[in-house]
User: Fold this.
Amino acid sequence: MCLFCKIVSKEIPSKVVFENDDFLAFHDIYPKAPVHILIIPKKHIVSFDDVDSQTMANITPFIQEVALKAGIKESGYRLITNIGSDGLQEVKHLHFHLLGGAKLGGNSFGK
Assistant:
């Protein structure tokens, strides 16, 4: 079982921001911005290359709600997903990094 599946099953604790039956949003333990939230499907999907269009359609409003709850929807934010080894995907479970809370720098993660 992957790290994020263990977080979904509550084997590993997380600081949850928002959750529904299909998705989970929680604070990154190594934040790269004042707001750094990870958003994942509860169902194990390896990466963006493996996700189906219905999951993407359903996760979109979830991500928008997370941005609203985090207080960064109006000021703006960055949404990133890493794919494969060259894309520096560390956990092989589809996840999106939602970064904001400050003017983000020019590199990938804002710092």
Summary: The longest helix spans residues 53-69. The mean pLDDT is 94. The two ends are 31 Å apart (CA to CA).
